[in-house]
Each structure stands twice: as structure tokens, then as C-alpha cells.
Q: What sequence folds into this?
């Protein structure tokens, strides 16, 4: 399975593969959100009622329509306190990125696994990528 | 230490990208979708400009490792080792006209298959050519991750 780098530099594009990649991205996001919801400490809740539109260039190139992906909104004692939203799937160097906003803090959540492989989620402050670490319960709770 | 500027380039990139992210967040909070798209387009251009700068560091490293490989083999007292290398001039700017693919094949195994360091370098090279020859990408580039990848490739080059 090619990486994003190989997909983007490939002379041929396969609509079926692009569709499969979009489905996989939506599925990975769904499973990530489910995990994060389980890790929420007391006083925190989440919902997925808000969405964001995904219509990346490779989707347009093969004539695939837009897809709406859920945003994970985070509430502390009932007040909106943060959100996690998908930023992009085809980003060279990673296999998808989400942005995590908490107050004035901005974190990136990256899947560094290969295409269509089990995800390897990692997280770091946007401005300090040297602090990149695996996304686990502790790093998530620390960010909250 | 050919890639001495790579970390510095990455640090400057992060500074600029953080400012663009700040502008994007402000536009997003205001619900200004058109402004968000304009800022994202700026980010993609910035990604590609910095990618080409980073690529130059890796290309220089590959060239220098290639020169070292040629000198090492040419210094062999064994003609059986030396004879395939004597035709190259390591002091020539263009390494006796060796194409980049061939320079890379002298320092990485080109038969290592898909996903190998050689295959990665070739994919990055195609990307570099696409950008440098005028066709900009519609995708973003995660420059910090690419820089990490370049350092890993550097560690695998065999002189």
C-alpha cells in the first residue's frame, strides 16, 4: 500500500482507492473519538453534533463528492471548553491530521502509521513538535 | 555535517506556520470560510517553499556521501574494486554527469523495494521536481515529519 507521498506523486489515480481511503479516514476518526470519550475525566462530556466538510484535491480529481466528518466538542461542567476537528487526510509526511483546540492551546494529532494500517496516533503542541508523544490517556488528560 | 541547516530551516518554518495557524483560527472563529481557504492556500505554498529548501539539504548530503563512496573505492589497491569507480570524478560539480537517481543508487540500495529509503528518496525527488518545475500541489506537507524522515535517510546513506 503506497504512502501519502507515493499517492500524491503517482501518475495514476484510482477512484476506488480514494473512496477506500476516505472511508478508512472516517472510520479511524470514529474510533479515535470513541477512545477519547472513554478517557474523559469526571466533569467532562463530549458530543459529535457539529461537522466539518472534507473535499480534498484528490477527491475532486477523481470526481468524488464532499464528505462531512464529525467534530468532537468537549464540555467542562456543561460549558464548551475545546474541540477536536479533522484537518486533512492527504498531508505528505503523515496519514491524516486532526487539530485539538483547548483554550488558547493548539495541538496537532497525527496518524504516523502507513496507509490502511492500524493507526499510530501521536500528539504535540503545534508550535513545539519536539514534544511529540504517543496519544494516550495521560497526554490527552494533560492537554485538557 | 552537510545537513547542518535543516533544523534551522524547520524552526523558521514552524514560526511562520504558527502565525498562519493563528490567522486561520481567527478567521475560523469569525466564520469567515473564504478567509480560512485563503490562509490554507498560503500555508500550502509555504509548505512547498520550505520543502524545496529542506530537499536541497538532503540532496547535498546524498551528493557528498556519493563523492565519499567514489573516493573510498578509488583508493582501493585492488583493481577489481576500483575499476567500476575510476570513471567518476568526485571533484566534478556534476559528478561526471551522474544523474541524481544514479548518485542515489550509489549510496542506497535501489533494489530494496517499495517503502525502502531509496524508494522514499525517489518519491521525494518527484515531488521536488513537480514543485520546482511549476506545478504546485493541492496537498499540505507536514514539514516537521518530513524533516525527521530526511534525518533518518541521512543516517542510512552508505559512503
A:
Amino acid at each position: 500500500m503506497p504512502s501519502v507521498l507515493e499517492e500524491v506523486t503517482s501518475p495514476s489515480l484510482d477512484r476506488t482507492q480514494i473512496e477506500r481511503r476516505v472511508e478508512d479516514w472516517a472510520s479511524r476518526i470514529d474510533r479515535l473519538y470513541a477512545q477519547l470519550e472513554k478517557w474523559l475525566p469526571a466533569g467532562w462530556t463530549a458530543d459529535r453534533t457539529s461537522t466539518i466538510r472534507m473535499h480534498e484535491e484528490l477527491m475532486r480529481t477523481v470526481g468524488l463528492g464532499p464528505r462531512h466528518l464529525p467534530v468532537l466538542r468537549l464540555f467542562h461542567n456543561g460549558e464548551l471548553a475545546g474541540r477536536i476537528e479533522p484537518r486533512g487526510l492527504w498531508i505528505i509526511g503523515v496519514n491524516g491530521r486532526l487539530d485539538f483546540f483547548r483554550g488558547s492551546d493548539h495541538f496537532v494529532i497525527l496518524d504516523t502509521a502507513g496507509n490502511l494500517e492500524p493507526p499510530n496516533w501521536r500528539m504535540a503542541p503545534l508550535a513545539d513538535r519536539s514534544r511529540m508523544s504517543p496519544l494516550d490517556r495521560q497526554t490527552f488528560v494533560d492537554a485538557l | 555535517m552537510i545537513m547542518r541547516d535543516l533544523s534551522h530551516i524547520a524552526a523558521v518554518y514552524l514560526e511562520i506556520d504558527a502565525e498562519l495557524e493563528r490567522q486561520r483560527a481567527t478567521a475560523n472563529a469569525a466564520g469567515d470560510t473564504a478567509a480560512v481557504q485563503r490562509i490554507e492556500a498560503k500555508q500550502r505554498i509555504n509548505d512547498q517553499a520550505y520543502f524545496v529548501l529542506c530537499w536541497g539539504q538532503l540532496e547535498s548530503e546524498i551528493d557528498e556521501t556519493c563523492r565519499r563512496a567514489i573516493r573510498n573505492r578509488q583508493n582501493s589497491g585492488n583493481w577489481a574494486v576500483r575499476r567500476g569507480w575510476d570513471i567518476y570524478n568526485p571533484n566534478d560539480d556534476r559528478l561526471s554527469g551522474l544523474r541524481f537517481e544514479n548518485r542515489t543508487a550509489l549510496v542506497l540500495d535501489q533494489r530494496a523495494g517499495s517503502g525502502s529509503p531509496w524508494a522514499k528518496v525517489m518519491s521525494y525527488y518527484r515531488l521536488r521536481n513537480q514543485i520546482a518545475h511549476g506545478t504546485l500541489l493541492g496537498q499540505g506537507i507536514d514539514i516537521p515529519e518530513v524533516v525527521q524522515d530526511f534525518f533518518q535517510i541521512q543516517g542510512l546513506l552508505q559512503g
Observations:
- Residues 33-74 of chain B form the longest helix (42 residues).
- Chain B touches chain A at residues 14, 17-18, 21, 25, 51, 114-115, 119-120, 123-124, 126-127, 130, 137-146, 149 (CB under 8 Å).
